[in-house]
Amino acid sequence: MQTINIIIADDHKLVREGFISLLKHPAKIYPIRISVLAEAGNGRELVDLYFKLKPDLIIIDLAMPVLSGIKAFKEIKNYDVNIKALFLSMHEDEAYIYHIIKAGGMGLVGKSVAKEELHYAVKKIYDGEIYFGKQWTESKLKKLVNNYSNTGNPEKYIFENDLTERETEIIKLIESGLCSDEIARKLFISKRTVDTHRSNIIKKLNLKTEFDLYKFAAMFIEFNIN
User: Fold this and answer.
1) Cys bridge to 109: 65, 113, 138, 139, which one at CB 3.0-4.6 A?
2) Is residue 159 very low, low, confident or very high in pLDDT (cuts 50, 70, 90)?
């Protein structure tokens, strides 16, 4: 049975343990042996472990402290262009897929992924292929990249926004789950001021709803944009 050596990186120990449990038992549909060489709790630990252990593949959470998953991946890729990575996220929206592809990543699965699909994704990426879910064929991924590259979708410009320092602060608090009243108390400003900032952010990013704002805030944090 083929053995694939990996490092898994996620800042939540229970999440790491859950994935390790899924990985250590061969899946019936894809009988491969996966050996977890080490665990990392943040992006910096991952970078250090990668060059120490030289795994075949890394499974990496997008949102991690110290150094985000995408930035840790890019740092490793600067020295090892052959790095193979499967990203994890609570979100699997098109914009996430777009930014992972543009960074050179090969795959993304949700944190609720089933064992069979997880093993399938690991094997695909180990073999040098890409995997963003069974619904994402190569032609659909190419169309997605073209659409995001050629349209004015606000999420495409997530790295190039013109948010003020205060707006950035509010976005981070929105992502943490705070409502306008709670944000106001935390920042020692009025709720009306918070609501004005929220409205301005929505206009700047050409978003349509408060739900779109929350999705943007989640992506903002996961890609560690400052």
Assistant:
1) 113
2) very low
How do residues 58-70 score in pLDDT, each as one tens digit?
Answer: 999 987 778 888 8
Q: Which two tokens stand for residue 32?
A: 């491969």
33 by DSSP, 3-state: which?
strand
CA–CA separation, 114 and 125 (whole Å): 17
The length of the chain, given as a count of residues: 226
pLDDT per residue over 26-41, tens digit each?
777 667 889 999 999 9
pTM: 0.73
Distance in Å from the first CA to the final CA of the chain: 45
Number of other CB atoms surrounding residue 3 within 10 Å:
9
Q: Determine phi and psi for 138, rounding to 5 degrees.
A: -60, -40
Amino acid at 149: S
CB 30 within 8 A of CB 185: no
DSSP string, 90-142: S---HHHHHHHHHHT--BEEETT--HHHHHHHHHHHHTT--BS-TT--HHHHH
Which tokens hold the place of 131? Answer: 């995997």
- How many CB atoms lie under 10 A from the CB of residue 142? 11
Closest listed residue to residue 40, CA positions, set 66, 22, 21, 1: 66
Alpha-carbon gap, residue 69 to 107, rounded angstroms: 13
pLDDT given for residue 64 in this prediction = 79
Give the number of other Cβ atoms within 10 Å of residue 27's Cβ: 19
User: What is the pLDDT averaged over residues 201-215?
Assistant: 80
Collapsing DSSP states into helix, strand and coil, what is residue 204? helix
